[in-house]
Amino acid sequence: MTPSAASVRVPGEVRPLLERIGRLAQDPGMSVYAVGGCVRDWRLGLPPTSDLDITVEGSGVELARAAADALGGTAEAHPQFGTATLRLPPGHGSIRRVDFAMCRKETYARPAAYPRVTPGTVADDLFRRDFTINAMAADLAAERFGTLLDPCGGRRDLARRVLRILHARSFLDDPSRLLRGVRFLARFGLRWDAGTARATRD
């Protein structure tokens, strides 16, 4: 996927930590990205949250363990899901935990079923998400740090103040997205886009 020409202004409080994680990913040849809600909030200029989500083209568990060793934290791994949680000691501002996950694809055998998960690219990982505003990533590689990946138009939808699903079956695949959407409408002062409004009625 070709990165967007836009960039994300990563808050100074979290930048050193994310730069360190980006460097740790270089030796094993992994590509690593901040993703989801934290990127959305940075685009909105909101204060950093206490949690960060990282997606990895490679082993999220391996990178979380390397970060724990380098930063003096602890990593709780869930290898069956390709995820791990890094818990940090004091000294990283408001950040207490970082969640790592491998980039993945998800397919649903039937409505509301648990998804079938397979390894994927960062593009696959963004396309599986709930709303376009949560389908943005910030590259953490040193030479591209802060470059915005926005294949679904989340930046535009934030500017238009609309909440849009990524595909017509989104709420059927995962009905809890509808509840999350209502929360996002209230929290960020958004409105459903036309297609998403039809999907909520369906």
Task: Explain what you see.
With 202 residues, the chain is α+β, with helices and mostly antiparallel strands. It has 8 helices and 11 strands. The chain has helices at 15-26, 37-44, 60-71, 122-127, 154-160, 170-173, 176-188, 194-201, and strands spanning 31-35, 51-57, 74-78, 83-87, 97-102, 104-107, 116-119, 137-139, 148-149, 162-163, 191-192. The strands form 3 sheets. It has a 7-stranded mixed beta sheet. A two-stranded antiparallel sheet has the order 6-7. A two-stranded parallel ribbon has the order 10-11. A hairpin with an 8-residue loop joins strand 6 (104-107) and strand 7. The longest helix has 13 residues, at 176-188. The radius of gyration is 17 Å and the shape is globular. The mean pLDDT is 90.
* Rg of Cα set: 17 Å
Largest sheet: 7 strands, mixed
- Element-level helix/strand string: HEHEHEEEEEHEEHEHHEH
Tell me, briefly, the overall form.
Answer: globular
Helix tally equals: 8
Beta strands, count: 11
**Mean of all residue-level pLDDT scores:** 90
For the biggest β-sheet, the strand order reads 3-4-5-2-1-8-9
Q: Kindly report how far apart the N and C termini lie.
A: 32 Å
Classification by helices and strands: alpha+beta
Helical fraction equals: 25-40%
In the predicted model, the low-confidence regions spanning at least 5 consecutive residues are none
Estimated share of beta-strand residues: 15-25%
